Amino acid sequence: MGGDEAGRPRPGIMPASAWRQSCRQGWVGEPSATRQIHLSSPPNIESPMDAELKEALLERCREMEIPLVGVAAADRWADPPFEPWVPGEFWPQAIYPETRSVVVIGLPISLPALETSPSVWYRELYRTVNILLDQYTYRIANFLNDRGFPSAFVPRDGYADVEALLKNPVAFFSHRHAAYLAGLGSFGVNNVLLTRKFGPRVRFGSVFTAAELPPDPVMEEDLCTRCMRCVQLCPAGALDDRDYPAGITDKSACTAYSASLAKRGVSPCGVCIKVCPVGEDRELYGRRDPSIYARGDGREDLRRGWEHVQSYGGR
Ligand code: SF4
Ligand code: SF4
């Protein structure tokens, strides 16, 4: 499914080496990249399209107060929605061949903490959300295992630390592409998935499952307004003003900036998700106007609070 018999990649699916070049400073790590991917049907697993199982799963997610849940059929990875697309060895069935569906959940990043970034407050929020994502997806995988469908959660951060990212700024699986295929949002110029509820202020976790769950439709609406605030305010100059995926984040520049914040104990950065006007959460927090983040633009009360938080807890 990753290419023809001669090993040529399908149109739209780049060999990882080419993808790495297209990403300037790379998404893809050292290639195992050009090897051919052969996807197979899960052996000895009966998994009829199971609407009742999905409803039970959604109910379980409601009990856990997970606000965003979507399902992508695993074979969607083999049908690129845009180009260049994720190389074959990053697809769910290449990583765990029994995968038939990918369940993706999203948890919000609350704006008042994010606004203080770079800060210990945002760092702790980020870590907390990551821990919850791992715990929830672990529990969802067990929920499906208990019902006879082999499943495994995929850790939120598929890398050791920022030093590992400096060597290779790519994880073994992309949750944001999974979230896209699960219908949870559309890509913004900032390369992040924008959701209706939280704009880009949401983090995703995934579960690979052999259950054949009814998939959710991919979002057709394009949520990005092309305001270019993310591009203009990125402190590392890492964002391109073209639409994703023509405009790819310079991951090395972004990671180098994050590493400099990590030395001070206040990573990650988060500016490109803070300034984005998309998301109903802006209404909730009374932050409809993102021009408040430009220097010298009123709201000294907010600025004093942010500077106070930034003055404590970091190195
Ligand atoms: S996280 Fe910060 S450095 Fe990285 S792209 Fe976003 S704004 Fe730029
Ligand atoms: S800040 Fe503006 S340009 Fe950037 S992703 Fe959000 S809406 Fe799109």
From TrEMBL:
It comes from Methanothrix harundinacea (strain 6Ac) (Methanosaeta harundinacea). This is Iron-sulfur cluster-binding protein. One of its GO terms (molecular function) is oxidoreductase activity. PROSITE patterns: 4FE4S_FER_1 (PS00198), 4FE4S_FER_2 (PS51379). It holds the Pfam family Fer4. InterPro entries: 4Fe4S_Fe-S-bd (IPR017896), 4Fe4S_Fe_S_CS (IPR017900). Residues 215-244 form the 4Fe-4S ferredoxin-type domain. Coiled coil: none annotated.
